[in-house]
TrEMBL record:
Protein name per Swiss-Prot or TrEMBL: Helix-turn-helix transcriptional regulator
CDD domains reported in the protein's UniProt record: HTH_ARSR
Record-level Gene Ontology MF annotations: DNA binding; DNA-binding transcription factor activity
Segments passing through the bilayer: none
Pfam family for this entry, one: HTH_20
Record-linked SMART domains: HTH_ARSR (SM00418)
Organism encoding this protein: Pikeienuella piscinae
PANTHER family in the cross-refs: ARSENICAL RESISTANCE OPERON REPRESSOR ARSR-RELATED
Keywords: DNA-binding, Transcription, Transcription regulation
InterPro entries registered for this protein in UniProt: ArsR-like_HTH (IPR011991), HTH_ArsR_DNA-bd_dom (IPR001845), Metal_resp_trans_reg (IPR051011), WH-like_DNA-bd_sf (IPR036388), WH_DNA-bd_sf (IPR036390)
Residue ranges of every copy of the HTH arsR-type domain listed in the record: 1-95
Length: 122
């Protein structure tokens, strides 16, 4: 990812509704959500939601798939990975061992969220 693409991603996430949408889609995982489901969950009008989803899609943080007559939206994990890699590209002056605690903490937070969701589903 280059600097301009990273700036597009940050610009997309700098608006409160779009940040909420992105976090919601991350939580939805592989199931994704339709624009209507996202609108209903966040209490946002559908035409406003469509505009926000388009901005997130252009930034590379959200992707969509047509499923019959519906379109489902998903967090684009490759886009997120690219943004995080860009941010950490020069982490700790080229000494990966110094960044490892941060990476471990990030992984633990993600794993705790997955475990909490699994426990809630049971």
């Amino acid at each position: 990812m280059d600097k301009l693409h990273a700036l597009d991603s940050f610009a997309a996430l700098s608006q409160p509704t779009r940040l909420e949408v992105f976090r919601l889609l991350i939580m939805a995982g592989e199931v994704g959500m339709s624009a209507g489901e996202i609108s209903d969950t966040l209490g946002v009008r559908q035409n406003t939601m469509s505009a926000n989803l388009a901005i997130l899609a252009r930034s590379g943080l959200v992707r969509n798939e047509r499923q019959g007559r519906n379109i489902r939206y998903f967090a684009d994990m490759d886009g997120l990975r690219g943004l995080l890699a860009y941010l950490l590209e020069d982490c700790c002056g080229g000494s990966p061992a110094l960044c490892q605690p941060f990476i471990d903490e990030l992984a633990c937070v993600c794993n705790e969220s997955v475990v909490a969701k699994d426990d809630a589903a049971k």
